[in-house]
Amino acid sequence: MENRILPILLAERLRRQLEAEFKDFEVALQQDPVTAVRLNPAKPYQLPWPTHPLSWHPHARWLETRPAFTMDPGIHAGAYYVQDPATMTIYPAIRDLFRGPPVRVLDLCAAPGGKSTLLADLLRPQDLLIANEITPQRYHILHENLSKWGLPNVVTTSVSPDNLAKSLGAVFDIILVDAPCSGEGMIRKEPVALSQWNPGLITQCALRQNNILDAAWSLLAPGGTLIYSTCTFNPEENIDQVTRILRNQQDAKSGVHGRTMLPPEVVVIEQGNAYGFQCWPHRIRGEGFFFSILQKEGDRAQSLSWKSAKILEKPGSMEVKKLSMLVDTEPSELVKNQQSGMIYAVPSHHIPFVDTLIKQVVKAEPVAAIGNFLKDQFIPHPALALSANDQSVLPDLEMDLEATLFFLSHQSIPRSQPAGWYRITYQNLGLGWVKAVGNRLNNYYPKHWRIRHLRDE
Questions:
Q1: 60 membership: H or E segment, kind and range
Q2: Same domain, yes or no, for 268 and 326?
Q3: pLDDT for position 308
Q4: I want to staple 366 with a disulfide (CB 3.0 to 4.6 A). Which of 10, 72, 265, 344 is the partner?
């Protein structure tokens, strides 16, 4: 247990906010952070540690101690995601939004992907999620995590909110803005959040949030819903932002949508006609988290027509014929990026929108990559092995824990198999590809995903 000492100015701010509860907050601040995971319902897996359920999410579990997740193949297979329990309180508040007509969903500040995978689990086949992250390094982590989650109707993008709004306009029915913030809610979990705190950081973050929220509102379709969230406590970055949107946008309204479904420990914050929900670590099992739900007035768009771009095209008939023997996907759902040569599986009713998205946004990539052809030889993409739909008809090689960790560390495996591609699995979960050549299996697991240090090294 660490001794965490609040900066004087931060302590004064929190004392004013919490009043009599401040002492309880101070006690909670000295306790260890809570470790929790959210299971992937599309990938059944038995966790190797004792867990306890969380009441506000059917697939969430908390653990009494934090294990070495890296050494469990389940996390590499996308069978679960390590996520703070407090952030999962958005689930009961927004799950009813995924009813009725199909929805286009945008996670505007999505990395590393925890809330994107939560949203992805709520998608129906007719829905589509765009997960955006402007920072290149964080974008790669986002795409990796969503590839491992393995759901087909997801596309990642890397573009500024302003440029996304200029390119697409008001086309999303649901938008999540998990905004960059001062991180006060993470001071128990991340030492850097405590060391970097200062009032100037709050001002800087609030200004940045202004711009992001304005762009998000431009991307929200009439009748749509915007979920705004942070992992901080101060009103400047939380309820004040909601108030600003209501003041500046005449078609905006705030409310306590989903309140009856939330755990009672979540605090309702009311400021004029603005409402928000706050999680405090002394009240709920988890860290600090705030969110608010805003509606844009108007009739919800049922459908939008999109002119197909020329970048994303159908594979040639020979490629389709070859792929039909390798993947269990309808030919109508196979599309090819003419710039990269990569072939993706995209639900047919989403192809016009994804097509346009790739044309309008410099960095846009469907998660469900299938592979490409190199000199008429098919090279399967890592995402194909991780697909929750189990699209590959290539043979599997089931491995034990030791051999699986060896594979995940990107080492060649001395083993004789008939020549060809094989999907490596652990407890029936796909992980990646090897190619049998002679007496060895060449390892095609992405180097940047690999386990760098095994326990016995």
A1: strand 60-63
A2: no
A3: 58
A4: 344
